[in-house]
Hints:
The structure holds two protein chains of two kinds.
Chain A: H1 7-20, E1 29-34, H2 37-41, H3 44-57, E2 63-68, E3 80-83, E4 89-92, H4 97-110, E5 118-122
Parallel strand pairs in A: 1-2
Antiparallel strand pairs in A: 1-3, 3-4, 4-5
Chain B: E1 6-11, H1 14-18, H2 21-34, E2 41-46, E3 58-61, E4 65-67, H3 72-85, E5 94-95, E6 102-103, H4 110-113, H5 131-136, H6 141-149, H7 152-162, H8 174-183, E7 190-195, H9 204-211, H10 213-227, E8 231-237, H11 241-257, E9 272-278, H12 287-294, E10 318-322, H13 323-335, H14 337-341, E11 351-358, E12 364-369, H15 374-381, E13 391-396, E14 402-405, H16 415-420, E15 429-434, H17 439-453, H18 459-476, H19 483-498, H20 502-506, H21 509-517, H22 519-526, E16 542-544, H23 554-558, E17 564-565, E18 573-574, H24 584-588, E19 594-596
Amino acid sequence: xxxLLTMEDLRALRKDAxxxxxxxxxxxxxxxxxxxxCGIAAGAREVVTELLKELQRRNxxxxxxxxxxxxxxxxxxxxxDVVRPNEDRVTYGRVVPxxxxxxxxxxxxxxxxxxxxxxxxxxx
Amino acid sequence: xxxxxxxxxxxxxxxxxxxxxxxxxxxxQEELRxxxxxxxxxIVETGxxxxxEKGPLVIxxxxxxxxxxxxxxxxxxxxxxxLMKGRPVSRLFFTEPLSLDKVPKYQExxxxxxxxxxxxRNCGYIDPxxxxxxxxRGGYAALEKMLSEMTxxxxxxxxxxxxLRGRGGGxxxxxxxxxxxxKAAGAKKYIVCNADEGDPGAFMDRSLLEGDPHNILEGMxxxxxxxxxxxxxxxxxxxxxLAIKRIQTAISQAEELxxxxxxxxxxxxSLTLKIKEGAGAFVCGEETxxxxxxxxxxxxxxxxxPFPAVKGLFGKPTVINNVETFANVPQIILYGADKFAxxxxxxxxxxxVFALTxxxxxxxxxxxxxxxxxREIIYEIGGGTxxxxxxxxVQIGGxxxxxLPENKLDLPIDYDxxxxxxxxxxxxxxxxxxxxxxxxxxxxxxxxxxxxxxCGKCTPCREGTMRLLEILERICAxxxxxxxxxxxxxxxxxxxxxxxxGLGQTAPNPIxxxxxxxxxxxxxxxxxKKCPAGVCQALFYYRxxxxxxxxxxxxxxxCPVGAISGERKQAHQLDMVKCIKCGVCVERCPFHAIxxx
Lengths: 124, 597
């Protein structure tokens, strides 16, 4: 580590450090991936890995990624839900790793739902 | 930087280490690697969460789900169900002792919900060996604020205005102490952190050092700036190896980053900190004895004045504060004195950490605002006494404190109210006793502690505690005489008035407070030769009830001294001459035929 010579150095280091702690805070935006047996069989793990990589690439910090079990719509797996504050909860179905960057870029960053992939909405 | 979707916080405090957290951590690492989750989930070894009794504790973020008493065999299920599929393992949730509800979330458990964590705010939340995590939690922001916009006088003034009082027990106003030292003549001054925590049952300082070491260092830096010191010591007892290791790591990190050393952050403030390991003598918690020990002398106190603030370590003005006191300081500087002083009572501000132990459902480390009642701590946080047992007394303040009875439960706790009630804040040990604890025996235990820890320099403490202990031992042995009570009171008051240091002056407190609130128990021991709680061995005996005994021979077989005899299927006899009162027969008798009288 470099020596902190000024106050600015300390502030800059703190800003970096904050990113490491996001997983321990409740974030504004939640992404929930169905990871029941059905979800895993349909490739949910690859989707999650891709999602984490995408978030890292774009340096997005205020998103928490959680997993959930089977909700009964197994044939539409992989199911991926996006919850933005004060908006409907949107469920995307048959998500493949290729779709992830679109969901992140359009919906998570810009708030535009990727209509083609939507299988359901839960009004807030 | 890798983006982890979840953090797995595993408590690595001493309590959880002894209940096996190291194996659990290894098992989690192995299991995560096997399932290729090790790049998604980060394992963080934290400091103490304070709920050691339920350890090893594992907390899963972002959900904030807490698992209790996690064993290696549970690891596979947690990873497979919770981390893979998002289904928390409810079997390992905490169960509220009163309502029997399973509570998944860390923050929603009564034990934590009723607490207000200022000093302990990072303990159990961050990895104590990771500098960045402390920084992300607002660490060293107080240092930054102080160096850029505050003069030493303003710092002292803020601490004074906040009303912070010494958390080591005495309750001396911290700001006033700093002011004395800042005004003392001389260019060389020292700052010392007293981490010689010796009270039986108290472990808040250890948890703070282990769980949030940088916070203590930051507190010391602020104090050093305020008084004008450029050198400091942390006096930590050698029995705390993990605390020493974590502080050493923190000091090295701070030195590497230039937060310790010369011209910190480009200012003209310089400070070096060193660790001095203590050999575990209780008297070294007394500040003049502590100074002697750092200087390489025998750890014995000297008379005051001159106070250390004027003439302390190596003859130079020195401020000595307790670990918990330093832990509060950065918060005062960062958020202002008013915010700190908003919590607490008129004359005792802020919060206090207590080590809650004894005959309680939930035990552990709790931080509560000053002015909370004992009843709230014991019943709402501690979950009350065990089923069918009646609350008898609470011992507060360790060997310097006293016992409070049930009618004092609604007393708001602060420094002054406790002194009035005949106890003392002490470092904050709280031991709850039920009707199976003998008050005289408790007083005898604390006296035997202070007697063996007395350094022997002054006569009142060396001889006085010895004599007090002799009288108590006599009473416990059933040989007490009615004059003993008056004799003990007289002796206790003269020790209090004439002993050299705090150890001797407070040593009679356990006797005086129990005599004040539980005199009837002493009288039962002396006059009726009875121990109401059935603890003092000389004052009870066992009897086998002929009507209940069926002659199963279990007791005769188990008795280690062969005191029980009798024919099969006939009532047995117990020979009290041989009996050593170990109580094994009572525990093992399937018919409850052996009675204690």
